[in-house]
Amino acid sequence: MAWSLRQLIESRLGDQYRLHEQYLNPSLVRVQGIIGFDKIYTRGEGAYLWDGDGTRYLDLLTGFSVFNFGRAHPAIKQAIQELLELDRPNLIKMDCPLLAGLLAEDLARRMPGGLDAVFFANSGADSVDSALKFARAFTRRHRVTYLEHAFHGLTLGTLGINGGEDFRKGFEPLLPGAEAVPMNDLDALDRQLRQGDVAAFTVEPIQGKGVYIPADDYLPGAQRLCRKYGTLLICDEVQVGMGRTGRFLCSEHWGLEPDIVTLSKSLGGGYVPVSATITRRKIHDAIFSRLEKCQVHSTTFGQNELAMAAGLASLHVLDEERLVERSAAMGEKLLKGLTALQDRYEMIAGVRGKGLMIGIEFQAPRSLALRAAWTAAEAAQKGLFAQFVVMALMRDHHILTQVAGPDVNIIKFLPPLIIGDEEVTTILAAMEQVMAEAAEVRGRVWAQSVELVKHALSR
């Protein structure tokens, strides 16, 4: 009998948590069970997921921004199906593939300041690792600088410029010569760069962990310092690029002209992993400087046909459906509605974001009973209230979202760029109800705290 993937999935559906517990990551299985995320999803389309019972979930997590175009976008799916039917020669290696050239051409025309040399790899961390190598080779310097709270990946190389202590702990020593500086402190950056040995300053224009947005003058000032001291400016657009913040590149909000840009996540349209490191030709030529060095930096699957086709189709969809503009418009509506909630609920400390990348930060309440509950949760684990909100949104409203980082009372919304007024209304109504319940110490939001606090203390 012929092997059937469909039959395999249908026969084993429901086994995934047992399989992951036995063969993959049992800690993650336990966490998902504790917070009520242990669903069995059977279908994804557009902005939604469905489980086996037919319950629909609004996806504001989007695979950490992989699904900017929604799930199962028909145009991207069709492009991949067409490619498979063509039986094109793939990964010949001693070859210059057409689709890689076409995707590089399309990306280069969208870049600021003459960035026209592209290197393709498989993930965001790959692209940042490549950028660091390129910067070192071009400048002939070894040190790198990054921002506190930064997240640029979890490979051994990118951990060296990761601002999260929880991610770094246990894997040291990391990249030598890497120094963090505080956001919005140009003097601290100047002190690092003036030493004359910093190859690159790597920055997320908006930080993914916490949705921290720099002051208006910080990134332009940082770019001027980089130019002054001969340091390359790397803009990590892996999560914030591809229209996420209402511009194709988030760095466009500040008129930046970086030396290197990294892209990934939604570049593959939600179907195929792919990343791009885009730089100036003179920087690229410093790596591939002689004929015998034409493959000195490479990766096996970096120009594979499926990834290139998905990338081309994704850029077409972005333009055809005007999703950059849609992200800006829907993001403005969502931010306005959430800011109005802040005026009514004291535990919302702030709402911030650009386009459809939005962070909501919480603070301790004033009333004695609520403050006691808040203090108990914080004593067990910092940032636990934000997890209560995430759990309530899932349990009562079937909205999938996340806490914005370790030990912070911030939740993050990353809706697909295809959302409309219906989804904005749904999000605002759900947040209104959750915050109203959180204002009552005997409400459902706090009722779940006992079990979660117990698990936090057991660590």
Which descriptors apply to this entry?
459 residues, seven-stranded mixed β-sheet, 44% helix, 2 domains, four-stranded mixed β-sheet, alpha/beta, 15% strand, Aspartate Aminotransferase, domain 1, single chain
Describe this structure in words.
With 459 residues, the protein is of the alpha/beta class. It has two domains: 11-72 and 323-458, Aspartate Aminotransferase, domain 1 (Alpha-Beta Complex); 74-320, Type I PLP-dependent aspartate aminotransferase-like (Major domain) (Aspartate Aminotransferase, domain 2), CATH 3.40.640.10. Helices cover 44% and strands 15% of the residues. It has 19 helices and 15 strands. The chain has a seven-stranded mixed beta sheet with strand order 4-10-9-8-7-5-6, with helices on both faces. A four-stranded mixed beta sheet has the order 1-2-3-13. A hairpin with a 6-residue loop joins strand 14 (402-403) and strand 15 (410-413). It is globular, with a radius of gyration of 23 Å. It starts with a helix and ends with a helix.
CATH homologous superfamily caption of the largest domain: Type I PLP-dependent aspartate aminotransferase-like (Major domain)
Estimate nothing, just give the exact number of structural domains: 2
Question: What gross morphology would you assign?
Answer: globular
Average of the residue pLDDT scores: 94
Evaluate the radius of gyration: 23 Å
DSSP summary, beta strand count: 15
Q: Considering DSSP H and I runs of 4 or more, what fraction of the residues is helical?
A: 40-55%
